[in-house]
Design goal:
single chain, alpha+beta, 3-stranded antiparallel β-sheet, 5 strands, globular
Length: 98
């Protein structure tokens, strides 16, 4: 953990986990700032930002995690209304940050 209170841990599986809290900020051009530790630990410059469904905070996921979650979602039958609703929420509330 550094002086910002941000900690990034790599699991033996190669996945990274963002732990602790980060208070986001907007730069003068109203762009969302992402901690450099999170960007470098993700192994790519792509992070997906989603608002939490029930709380007022944002969740950051590396693209590998989103791919994994979408693969699990695709295993549900099209008749599963909860899975379809979840897919709509993910698609409508997420944004790709490069």
């Amino acid at each position: 953990m550094d002086d910002t209170g941000i900690r990034v841990e790599a699991e033996p599986t190669g996945l990274c986990i963002f732990v602790s809290q980060y208070r986001h900020a907007l730069d003068p051009k109203k762009r969302f700032t992402i901690p450099s530790q999170w960007r470098s630990a993700a192994g790519t410059n792509l992070l997906y930002i989603l608002p939490d469904i029930s709380m007022k905070f944002l969740c950051a996921f590396p693209s590998t995690e989103i791919r994994h979650r979408l693969q699990k979602l695709r295993q549900h039958p099209m008749a599963d209304s909860r899975a379809r609703e979840f897919a709509r929420v993910i698609g409508s509330r997420s944004d790709l940050v490069a």
